[in-house]
Amino acid sequence: MGENPKLSVGDNAPAFELESDTQGTVRLQDLRGEKVILYFYPKDMTPGCTVQACDFRDNIDRFVEAGYQVYGISPDPVDSHAEFREQEELNFPLLADPEHEVAEAYGVWREKTTYGKKYIGLVRSTFIIDEEGVIEEIQDNVRAKGHVGRLLRDLPELTPA
Asked: Is this prediction's pTM over 0.85?
């Protein structure tokens, strides 16, 4: 496995084509003309990932009203995503990246340390992509709790005047 790319604000978002739990195949190119929030999370139905997904669920109307489509991406398969969606009543699509190719393209499949142990895995991160497919913002290695609140605070379209 080579060095992961380091994406920057202003870069074109890497293209992808992934299966979703609700919409069949989702392609980034098909989302042109829409603002997109891609959030990468490690695993369905784990405590932190559930907190984060439920925060998106509970605030989805604010994102949609501001023109954003929200997509969660993890290495879990579509059937796991479907179970997660049903269990937590999620109201946005989850995309399956079982070979972590998209996570690698976005530079979020890399070395992590948990309780002093180093391993390769998915680093919880979020990418805001504009209507032209350009990365507007990157929030790397975020904590699950409070992340959605920070997005609501930091994205200009969502911040009350």
From this structure: yes
